[in-house]
Each structure stands twice: as structure tokens, then as C-alpha cells.
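Work Package 3 (structural annotation) set out to generate three-dimensional models for the target panel prioritized at the project kickoff. During this period the team completed the workflow that converts sequence records into C-alpha cells, so that structures can be stored uniformly alongside our sequence database. As a representative example, we reproduce one entry of 156 residues exactly as it appears in the project archive.
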Amino acid sequence: MIFRPIHLKKDLSVVRQFRRDSFVESFGNDDGFDSDDYIAWLKENIRIFPSGFVMAEEHGRPVGQIELSIRRYEGRLIGYVHLYYLIPEERGEGKGRYLLAYSEDFFRWHRVKEYHLRVSPTNTRAVKFYKKSGLREVGTELNGKVVRLNKEIEID
């Protein structure tokens, strides 16, 4: 698996499709997904963190996407995973570990010792993977719609 920066001109339809599918996978539908708002947000964040917004490819074919940034949380800087996405046929094949490794390298490079993500509690496969990978539950947010998880990482 290789990772390359998202190029909106080339990847626009794919990133829209992947993000929409992530809503369906997490919440059972794509209610609340606004394609235009998402693309505007993505464009701004790619400008700020170009190596944090990447496509995952195998044999020249997009199979996943990662969206990462650095942000403030409770007065400290943390890494934040906005999106881990793998196409359905690649899920459950152990490939999520490559997305996780890329992300942790990104956060180390930015000298961030802790990162967070949020996941729907109904996405049990993802919750199980994250906990198996060392993330721990911090609490629920958005009236229980999501669970916040975090992990501390070693910085060289």
C-alpha cells in the first residue's frame, strides 16, 4: 500500500464517494453529509496539512483515504484523525494497520504525543480494531452518537 497526497482535481469524485460511504458505514445513512461543505473543508485542510490528507493506493487503484490534522483539545495540542477509510472489499484484511502506522508516523513527525478520533459506537468492527490497536475510550460525544478514543505515542 502506498500513500500519496490527495489532489482534488484528480480525486474529487473518489473523495466524495469515500466520505459519503463513511457516513453510511458509521451511521447507516448519509444524512448530514454535505458534499460542497466537505470539499471546501477538505481544500482548506489539505492546504494546512498536505501530508495529512492522503489516498491509500494498491496497484494504482484508490483503496482508502486518511484525513489527519493537529488541533487543540482541552488546552493541549493533539493529533486528530478525521477519517480512516478503506473500501468495503479491503476491510477485515488487516490493512487498517497500514493506515494506523501512517497516521502515527505523521503525528510523531509533528511531535504530537497523543491523538484522538471519534467513531460511531454502532461501527463495532472499527471500535474493536481501534481498541485492539491500543486506543482507549475517553467518553461519548454528540449525545452518544460518537465515542472519542485516544492513544499516546512515543516520540523519538
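The chain has one domain: 2-152.
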